[in-house]
Amino acid sequence: MNEPNKPSETRGWDTYWQGTRDKDSYALGGASHPAITSFWDDTLSQILASTTNARILDIATGSGAVIEKFFHHSTDAQPDITCVDISDAAIDGVRRRFPAITGIVADARSIPLESFRYDLVTSQFGIEYAGLDALDEAARLIAPGGTLAMLMHVRPGLIFDECSAALDAVQRTQKAEFVERALRFFESGFAAVRGADRAPYDQAASDLNPAIEAVDTILSEHGEHVAGGTIAKLYFDVERIHTRIQTHDPDEVLEWLRTMVRELADYGERMASMCDAAIDEKAFGDAGERLRKHGLTIAQGEPLLPVDGVLPVAWALQAVRAG
Questions:
Q1: Which of 6, 218, 243, 284 could anchor a disulfide with 10, C-beta 3.0 to 4.6 Å?
Q2: In the beta sheet, which residues pair with residue 142?
Q3: What CATH code would you report for 8-157+278-321?
Q4: What residues form DSSP beta bridges with 104?
Q5: DSSP characters over 88-152
Q6: What is the model's pTM?
Q7: Comparing C-alpha atoms, which of 54, 28, 30, 27 is closest to residue 43?
Q8: CA–CA separation, 264 vs 259, rounded Å?
Q9: Phi-psi category of 116—alpha, beta or left, where left has phi over 0 and alpha has psi -120 to 50?
Q10: pLDDT tens string for the chain (323 positions)?
Q11: DSSP letter at 210?
């Protein structure tokens, strides 16, 4: 639900998770990258092998990518799994996918759960959005003998670079007013098809040309895949509709473009949020020190590197509390 009194960033994530239920997991933050899959396979295998009826807490659960991996490893029909996210839509979506879990809507910096209860606390590309204060809360919840396992956005890194490129492409498309000019172009174009004066249509076409050139440059620099192919699809759809304008419904086309104005703005905000949340080497070191102050031992703290790549995919962090 998108409540009007929610902070704008929370409403934005509600909208995001409402719209991504059926999207590829890689688009939801790199969840299907082989290095990430391997990290969780190893982590969950160790926990399930050493702990009976493990109590698991996933913080900033998002689409439930970590929980999905747990169910691939476990045959427990009634697992003790709790998911926390600040977004109602995220929790609603995870509950639909995994009815056995407990879902809680809460800020990662203030989770209304019992201290020292969970055998495994996880987070994938989530806890860093709440800031390093959320690490104190995660540490509080780890049981004696328990493990904290997290993947966090790394700066610089593969996903960070993709998000940075997407943000640049979206912002430049917005600055060129490509969608807004296309909207005016089609408004006057549909009117001309119905017999109205062509002069506004010709002027709108002239106004659209610089925006087309700007998007041409963006796609040339970043490739058609940038921003998940959103800008390229928008660009080619405008061209395709124009070539057969007489066959299209004006109301549908114009509403689509109005929607794209909003969606580009939302997409740009998400990319900016991801870039801002990414952690550099110093901040990652600070994260480890915070966990040590809570009595945890760092078992793994390093960049997660793909087998065939140079740029890391994430920071991989595991910490344990003595039993």
A1: 6
A2: 118
A3: 3.40.50.150
A4: 84
A5: HHHHHHHHHH-TTSEEEE--TTS--S-TT-EEEEEEES-GGGG-THHHHHHHHTEEEEEEEEEEE
A6: 0.85
A7: 54
A8: 9
A9: left
A10: 334 444 555 545 555 544 443 343 334 445 678 899 999 999 998 888 887 788 999 999 998 999 999 988 877 767 799 999 999 999 999 999 999 999 999 999 999 999 999 999 999 999 999 988 899 999 999 999 999 999 999 999 999 999 999 999 999 999 999 999 999 999 999 999 999 999 999 999 999 999 999 999 999 999 999 999 999 999 999 999 999 999 999 999 999 999 999 999 999 999 999 999 999 999 999 999 999 999 999 999 999 998 877 899 999 999 999 98
A11: H
* CA 227 from centre of chain: 12
Question: 300 vs 52, 119, 139, 235, 291, CA distance in Å?
Answer: 23, 17, 15, 44, 12
Return the number of other C-beta atoms located less than 10 Å from residue 112's C-beta: 8
- The full set of domain ranges for the chain reads 8-157+278-321, 159-275
Q: Do 111 and 60 contact (CB within 8 A), yes or no?
A: no
Report the largest interatomic distance among the alpha carbons of the chain, rounded to a whole angstrom: 80
Position 171: which residue type? Q
Residue type (1 letter), 305: L
Structure tokens at 184: 């005016």
For 257, the token pair is 């473009």
Assign 219 to helix, strand or coil.
helix
